[in-house]
Structure prediction request, 81 residues.
Amino acid sequence: MDTKISKTTIKGQITLPYAWRKKFNTNNFSIEMYDEKLVIKPIIIEEISSEEIIFDAERDNKGEGIAIDDMIEMLKKVKNG
Prediction:
C-alpha cells in the first residue's frame, strides 16, 4: 500500500499525487465514507454514461438550483464548445 499525507486547502480540497492521477488516467473520482474512513476510487465517466455533467448544484451553486434561462445559456456554451 502506498500512503501519502495530504492537507486540505481552505476550501476543503485535497490534492492527489500526480503519479496516482497518471496511473488511473482520469480526473474523476468517487469518494465514499464508511464509518471513520474515506475511500477514493478512480472512475471513468465515459464508461458510466455518455452524458456530460454541466451543472452540479452542490458543486456549482452552493446547493441551490438555477433559473431555466441560465441553464439554457450553459447548454448553448457546451454545444458551441
The first strand starts at residue 29 and ends at 34. The mean pLDDT is 80.
